[in-house]
Amino acid sequence: MHNSEKTTTKDEDQASICAWAEEIFGPVREPVALVDRAKLEMDELREAVEAVDQNEIGREAADVLILLYRLADQFGIDLDGSVQAKMAINRARRWQAAGDGTGSHI
């Protein structure tokens, strides 16, 4: 079995995901490459959403998150911690709903 085919029962986190990606894909030369790849994965996620394919939606959303973890890691950012901090900011803001499940702060 190749390393990339091994299955694991451990819970993954940013550190383990980034270590795996580094082992499989090598070091990141240009962090913007991760952004570009995430954009491609977002396109695939959009296709899955349009097709209402729940399994594929989960997989493509995970691909995006994996790339975001790796991008954050390139800058020494704990993405889960950043989400917690950003949610504290979001909860303190006033929001205007757009009527489509999105909105913007005012």
Written account of the structure:
By secondary structure, the chain is mainly α. It has a domain at 11-78: Helix Hairpins (Orthogonal Bundle), CATH 1.10.287. The protein is built from 4 helices and 2 strands. It has helices at 14-25, 32-50, 54-74, 79-92, and strands at 95-97, 103-105. It has a two-stranded antiparallel ribbon with strand order 1-2. α1 (14-25) packs across α3 (54-74) and α2 (32-50) packs antiparallel against α3 (54-74). The longest helix has 21 residues, at 54-74. It is globular, with a radius of gyration of 16 Å. It starts with 13 loop residues before the first helix and ends with a strand. 10% of the residues are buried.
